[in-house]
Design brief:
Order of helices and strands: EEHEEHEE
Distance between the termini: 24 Å
Number of helices: 2
CATH topology: Alpha-Beta Plaits
Number of strands: 6
Number of domains: 1
Strand order of the largest sheet: 1-2-5-6
CATH class: Alpha Beta
Largest sheet: 4 strands, antiparallel
Shape: globular
Radius of gyration: 12 Å
CATH architecture: 2-Layer Sandwich
Strand content: 25-35%
Oligomer: single chain
Helix content: 10-25%
């Protein structure tokens, strides 16, 4: 499995950095339809399209180690709360 898992969800691009994830599971608590922890305790996608946008963003923001990054369609990083452009 790759160090990164990335999905397009509506107008968002969501990436899990598996090297940063330490398995707190806050994303799973916020949106269990979107995320689960795999056998190694690392977050993976389930059905992120099944979660309304605002709850998905809250789940991504809940990560205490910023292992989940989200960009909008303009390439602006919205989670974690930075305003960086994607190259």
């Amino acid at each position: 499995m790759s160090d990164f898992d990335e999905r397009s969800v509506g107008d968002l691009r969501v990436r899990i950095d598996r090297t940063l994830c330490v398995g707190f599971g806050d994303c799973v608590t916020e949106a269990p339809e979107a995320f689960v922890l795999d056998e190694s305790g690392t977050a993976i996608f389930v059905k992120p399209d099944d979660v309304e946008r605002e709850r998905l963003l809250r789940a991504c923001e809940a990560c205490p180690v910023d292992a989940i990054t989200v960009w909008n369609r303009e390439g602006v990083q919205v989670v974690p709360g930075a305003c960086e452009q994607v190259p």
